[in-house]
Amino acid sequence: MTPNAASSPSGPPGPSRRGFLASTAVATAAVAGGMPLLAACGGTDHGSREGTTSGKDAKRLLPAYVASNVVTPDIPSRNGSSMGFTAKLDVAGLKTSVPRKLGKGGKVTVMSPFWGSPPRQDNPYYTAMNDLTGVDVQWRNQDGNTYDQKLGAVLASSDVPDVVVVPGWNMMGKIPSAVISKFADLGPYLSGDKVKEYPNLAAVPTDAWQRSLFGGKLMGLPMPASYVTNIVPLYRQDVFQREGYEVPTSPDEFTALCKDITNARAKRWACGDMKWTAFNIWGVFPGSDKPLWWNLVDGKLVNRVETDAYLEALEWTRKLFAAGYVHPDFKLGKSQATDPGAKFAAGEFLIYNNDISSWYGQRASQATQNPDFRIWGMDLFGPDGGDPTLWAAEPAGIFAFVNKKAPESVVRDVLAVANVTAAPYGTKEWMMTNYGVEGTHYTIKNGVPVKNDRGNNEVNNAFVMIASPASTLAHPDFPDITEGQVTWQQKMGGFTRKTSFWGLQITEPSRYANLASNFEQLEDDIARGHKKISDMQQAVSDWKRQGGDKLRDWYQRLLDENGSAAN
């Protein structure tokens, strides 16, 4: 048995499932949406399918925010962090947040990414959730590792399910335009006070709804996320304590520690590919969505790839590889090093960066066979060892959309399901959504719910994808991990700033969709010593000549119309 997290994730855990959320490949077309200001933003490419929605236009579309008072977190959100629950979950005293079924018994088909072996449709979890919501949800689960291919094919066809889940990292190429043309406007059901019919959706943070505006309409049901970077440099705390290693507080200390740890003959290396941590150390603008690549610096819009910090971070990463400090698996590239967790647990390397969910996931997976195993997150630091300059991630990264052709009865049933799945931690609806049926999917051990194998298979990657509550971290089996995660977010959040286009859904003109598509591969080639920094400098020069400078002008017009989100 493996205990399971009780959290609202920012996405499926770990790079083995979808690459890092911060990946530059995530954004070859802006995780995007549009606005009617578009005539001012190069409106020849499908008019309102370019641009963004903000200001008064956004305000009239956004749902009213009504905070939930059903439960109170042990650790409130601060500096953009998730809220945290560290007390034992009182399963017998769970609150009710949906007093009556809103679903009318209709059938709703949902296509969503799934990591693992999808369960049968008639499994007890799906059956229980359908009974709770009053909706017959039929799942069309697709392999999450190749979801982008399936998504493109389905959206190009006439056979689009009633609901389609689209992760932000799949918003590339023609997908943003397809979202605008294929899916329904939810504004008539959710804008303003209309959302109050669905109280759990009304408690979803406004920033997450802002990210759900596409083509000047409210179209997505969001999965809210903390805006603090989700990429954490994780390390083997147990080994550090046993060997007397000190947690580094500067790049130089990190490199010196790597030298002390590495012993290739003993099959121990210091770290994995630390590129994403390097970007955070050097304060590189975020790589999660292309609009975040741009920021106003000294009065001029600058792209992340044009900065000295970008090159310096790549050079530091390259030196770690060149010195032999990086585990050999990572030298093979992402396809061969998709799941580093097992070798991290085996002690073959002691540091790697991963999604914050892996902080808990690694600990939980080792709880039985290796009870002394301890994992923790390093604080980030600046290039000189001082405070870091970090950049905010987007406040929502996964969205569920309703087919434009769906009748009102189907839309209402989808919202009924979303109102259940967005229930906060500590409620009956949250418990069923995240843990399933007691005795079938989990048991209570020492006051803690623990999933069994069936629970791990069936209660997985499903209903949480339709909508989720405000970003929450809660691990009843390991409350110390919850406290560590939230405290880390709060501390790092104190150093976090917002770039000029933070929080806006932006659809770039299609002519620029593939302009930056080769940068991530070039980054990895440089880190592994296959290419040189000068190759990146040439690529940036080519990018500017081939459309980067014109794209800068396009973003400048957006900035002139909307103002900056930076703080």
TrEMBL record:
<dbReference type="InterPro" id="IPR050490">
    <property type="entry name" value="Bact_solute-bd_prot1"/>
</dbReference>
<comment type="similarity">
    <text>Belongs to the bacterial solute-binding protein 1 family.</text>
</comment>
<dbReference type="InterPro" id="IPR006311">
    <property type="entry name" value="TAT_signal"/>
</dbReference>
<keyword id="KW-0813">Transport</keyword>
<protein>
    <submittedName>
        <fullName>Extracellular solute-binding protein</fullName>
    </submittedName>
</protein>
<dbReference type="InterPro" id="IPR006059">
    <property type="entry name" value="SBP"/>
</dbReference>
<dbReference type="Pfam" id="PF13416">
    <property type="entry name" value="SBP_bac_8"/>
</dbReference>
<keyword id="KW-0732">Signal</keyword>
